[in-house]
Amino acid sequence: GQNIDQPTEMTATEGAIVQINCTYQTSGFNGLFWYQQHAGEAPTFLSYNVLDGLEEKGRFSSFLSRSKGYSYLLLKELQMKDSASYLCAFLSGAGSYQLTFGKGTKLSVIP
Amino acid sequence: EAQVTQNPRYLITVTGKKLTVTCSQNMNHEYMSWYRQDPGLGLRQIYYSMNVEVTDKGDVPEGYKVSRKEKRNFPLILESPSPNQTSLYFCASSLLAVPDTQYFGPGTRLTVL
Prior knowledge:
heterodimer; A: mainly beta; 5-stranded antiparallel β-sheet; B: 4-stranded antiparallel β-sheet
C-alpha cells in the first residue's frame, strides 16, 4: 500500500538549523515534494526531488533517497517567519500522477 | 497577474443541495487538481486532471465530480453534499502534465449543515 509519514510537531531556535524527515512507501514513484503552509494560507511550493541526493535552494535544502523511501527538508539560519507547517508529498508513477501528502510537520521557531 | 482563483471563498449550505466550486487559472497550465484539508488528516487529493478531458481519481473521490472541458477551468461538483464534506478545499495547477511545481488557489471553506 501507500503510506507517508512525518513528525507532527517540531520546535527550533531562531538562527539554528532544523531537519524535517519524511518517510514513504509506494509501489510507483515519480518524485518527492515539499511545501510550506503558513496558518490560514494556501501551501506554497518549496522543492521537488526526482533523483537521489541533496538539492539546495538558499536557506532550504531537500534530500532524497529512493532506495530507503526517505527524504528530509533542511532549513538553515532559521527565522521567525519560518514558523509554518511543512508538507511532504510523493507523486505516484506508472501512469498515475496522483499526489499523496503527509499530515504535515508544524514547525515553531522560538527566539 | 498569474494566479489560481476559486469561488466562492466561503460557503455554508445544507445537506443534499447541489453545489459547484469553480477553479480557474490564467497560466495555461496542463495539470489541475482539487484537495481537501482537514485537521489531523492533512491535505488529501480528490481528483486531478492532466489535460482537457483527462481526469483521474485521487485519494478521496467519493461524493465529488469534476470536469475539464477547457484548459483554464476545473470545477468541483458536489451533487448531494453531506456534513462529512465540510472542509477547506484547495485547487491547484501546474505548468506540465507532471505537477513539478503546483500553484495553489486561496481555498474555499465549505460548511455543510
